[in-house]
Write a structure and sequence with these properties.
Blueprint lengths: L3 E3 L3 H11 L5 H19 L5 E7 L4 E7 L3 E7 L3 H8 L6 E2 L2 E5 L6 E6 L9 E5 L2 E2 L3 H13 L3 E5 L2 E2 L1 H10 L4 E4 L1 E2 L2 E2 L5 E2 L5 H6 L3
Parallel strand pairs: 1-12, 4-5, 4-6, 4-8, 8-10, 9-11, 10-12, 11-13
Antiparallel strand pairs: 2-3, 6-7, 14-15
Helix pairs in contact: 1-2, 2-3
Amino acid sequence: MSNVHASNHPLIAHKLSRLRNKNTEPKKFRELVQEIAGLLAYEATADLQVTPVEIETPLTKMQAYELKEKIGLVPILRAGLGMMEGIWELMPSAEVWHIGLYRDEHTLKPVEYYNKLPLEPTVSVCLILDPMLATGGSATATADILKRWGVKKIKFVGLIGAPEGIKAMQTAHPDIDIYLAAIDDHLNERAYIVPGLGDAGDRQFGTG
């Protein structure tokens, strides 16, 4: 799984434990999602290209650097919205494009219901944001959409992945790096990640 990066950072492990706890209230849950997403994005963007620029400090002129690539954040509605804010704080110039997918409870397949991408890509790098990489259906479908849009460099950033979802993503898109806070054991009969953290959308928005 060379393209799968499961974080071993102590801060992420600590925050993820609090996130998993069934007694964590929605407000704190949302805060933890944002914090973990920001830490994961820090790792996922380590290879972004920069370009030299000349600036002037209070003491002298010097060569500094700024991001060369235009970044797009693509939260999968609705659970991915909570991750967006944490990453946007790190990259306020990033563009945000929403893609709406829901999982059909009978087929467990993703159904697209919202997509407002312009005709031509406006970014060179996209981060797909979704807390749970369960079956992999939504992630692979979103990657399909972005590739058809014309984006060449795509990464997936999530909180927890299941082996089934990781395998599906690797099979469909072996070129996309996957960044996760943890890899869990398996999916249950309802395609929920075990041990997981429950429904990330419901827990964020208090609708469970």
